[in-house]
Amino acid sequence: MRFRGTPHAMPILALGPVLVLLFLLNACRHKNEFAALSPEQSRRVEILIRSQYDIPADYQLALGQRARSQFPGYYDLPVTFSHDGKQVKFTFLLTQDEKHLARLQEFDLTKDPSSGILFNSQRARGEPQGKVTIVVFDDLECPFCARSHAALFPDTLQHYKNGVTIVYKDFPLVEIHPWAMHAAINAGCLAEQNTPAYWDYVDKVHTHYADFSGDKQRLHETLQKLDQLAKQETGVDQSTLDLCIRKQDESAIRASIAEGKTLGVESTPTIFVNGERIVGARPINWVWASVDRALKVQGLEPPAQTDVMRTETLQNKAQDALK
After folding, report:
1. Angle at CA 147, nearest 5°, toward 213 and 135?
2. Statement to judge: residues 149 and 297 lie in one domain
3. Is 186 helix (H, G, I), strand (E, B) or coil?
4. Do 267 and 193 sit in the same domain of this protein?
5. Is there a single domain that holds both residue 56 and residue 202?
6. pLDDT of 305 strictly over 70
7. Is residue 162 over pLDDT 90?
8. Do 95 and 182 belong together in one domain?
9. Count of domains forming the chain
10. pTM of the entire structure?
11. Nearby residues of 118 by Cβ (< 8 Å), 6 or more positions away
12. Do the Cβ atoms of 212 and 141 come closer than 8 Å?
């Protein structure tokens, strides 16, 4: 308050141009420091990222503006990956001498990847209160899901007796599988009335999925076959089932897809074993190894390894089931 009309005002005003000049110089220095990479250096960075992470050729990479990093000696370098109208951005670390690139990813240890998965007993198989829960995001038109399904049942249930609960969630890849959504809705219609009928339908579709054409020209015929297969199930009220099948309400399936996406599901099958994720139709001993770890964490001893069937045998069984 004493600056106004006091002798102190003059020195401060006299410093004004100097402060402005210092600010401009400082701004120029920052602009220089965070200038965009040269085209040659940008190309070197892109080649390195593509080779190290095996990025498909049809994915586009765009390097952003360098920014100050919390890590001394590094800049933050945002890189945007684009494909088919979708984008995702990752931050890399670039040394200030522009000679090295690093990638550091932070994970939240307070979050359980599968803690938010919702399911009900209508989609569960095995022991209702199993010590280990195996959640499978499934696509009934997916050949890899069929292979995984054949390996899971009945061997996993037999191996662990009452130790596991297996739950199926819908994740039809509608972009590439024209009848997957329809089949999932039919299965859901059965699950609403009769759990064994649901699992019998899922077993049959997975076992004989090759009998249902994926040709869009024959889609109507395929959908009729799927409907007829569902209506052959016993223990359900046929009029209720017919109404549900005719309605083809996708809301529950879409909700399951959305749930899967929040968990990072992008392909099928994706399996969660007490939160531990397995992507793809892996050998069944991969799943069993995850189950064993989950049991040991709880202080429980897994079944003897001598009971584990050889991977090759299980894979052959899965392949035979698809013929």
Report:
1. 110
2. yes
3. helix
4. yes
5. no
6. no
7. no
8. no
9. 2
10. 0.68
11. 259
12. yes
